[in-house]
Design a protein that fits this description.
The chain is an alpha+beta fold. Helices cover about 20% and strands about 30% of the residues. The strands form 2 sheets. It has an 8-stranded antiparallel beta barrel, surrounded by 4 helices. The two termini are about 25 Å apart.
Length: about 280
């Protein structure tokens, strides 16, 4: 599958205004999005891995083999992405009083366990070299994992946990264009038990999307200014059809023109979107 996209930055002070405009343009209310993104890197060369689906019977061998073929023997980071919309968002943490926090923790006791436990294994290829199209274009792959321990599943594929972050924002859709106005939150990979390196405790990969997400105080905005990113994207199932790719590009250019003066949508930085292991 191909993903074509444009990106733009939005100051926090203009978030509400832009969101209302987007809702008017699309004719739909914003859909709140809160996702957990867990990043993994390969332990060894892809050619030496053995495919295993012991952590989830829902994932088929052929899907993993197709993904490995898509990576063409190169080393890429992969992500497990899980929806945690039922969990409280990081930006809401400082808006809740201590008394409300205690009650909410009790009320959410079983909610997080019952929240979406479905992971999606996501691969994002290095974007194409600029100049061919006026938008960013890259290959992507998504495989749903319906059950099992996400960390164990990735370990069986020969990948090890590196970090995780949260994506929070609003999603709207106009024809084939997906508009995602969002911010990123991160948590340190290492929690220092003392000032000495030998006593540091390394975080483990979460088993489910909501695993460990109740400790929101440790999450911080990636952009300290609180700014947002507007991503406009179109996904094309068969990138080999020129007419489909042209239609996607035209739709992106149309939304770019519509939002001109509000937010400047431009292709992303190819090197900044490089997911290969350095």
């Amino acid at each position: 599958m191909h993903e074509l996209l444009l990106l733009g930055t939005v100051p926090a002070s203009r978030h509400d205004q832009l969101l209302k405009i987007l809702a008017g343009i699309t004719g739909m209310p914003p859909n709140h999005v809160l996702e957990r993104h867990v990043v993994f890197k390969p332990k060894r060369s892809p050619s030496s891995r053995e495919v295993s689906v012991g952590a989830s019977q829902a994932v088929q061998n052929q899907q993993i083999q197709a993904l490995q073929g898509q990576m063409k023997g190169e080393l890429f980071h992969l992500q497990l992405v899980g929806d945690i919309s039922d969990a409280r968002s990081p930006s809401e943490v400082n808006q809740i009083s201590p008394d409300d926090e205690t009650q909410e923790t009790q009320d959410r006791g079983d909610t997080q366990d019952e929240a979406s436990s479905i992971w999606s294994l996501c691969f994002y290829d290095l974007p194409e070299v600029g100049g061919r199209r006026p938008v960013t274009s890259r290959m992507i792959s998504k495989i749903d994992i319906l059950e099992g321990d996400g960390g164990n599943f990735m370990d069986s594929l020969g990948y090890t946990y590196t970090s995780d972050y949260a994506l929070e924002g609003q999603r709207l859709i106009l024809n084939n264009v997906i508009l995602l106005l969002h911010r990123l939150f991160y948590t340190p990979r290492l929690e220092a038990a003392s000032s000495t390196t030998s006593n540091r405790v390394e975080k483990e990969s979460p088993r489910t999307p909501a695993d460990g997400f109740s400790d929101l105080e440790s999450w911080s905005l990636l952009d300290p200014s609180g700014g947002y990113i507007l991503q406009a994207s179109v996904r094309v199932q068969d990138g080999g059809k020129p007419e489909s790719m042209t239609l996607a590009v035209n739709e992106l250019l149309a939304i770019k023109e519509t939002l001109k003066g509000l937010v400047e949508l431009e292709p992303g930085d190819r090197l900044a979107m490089d997911t290969r292991v350095k």
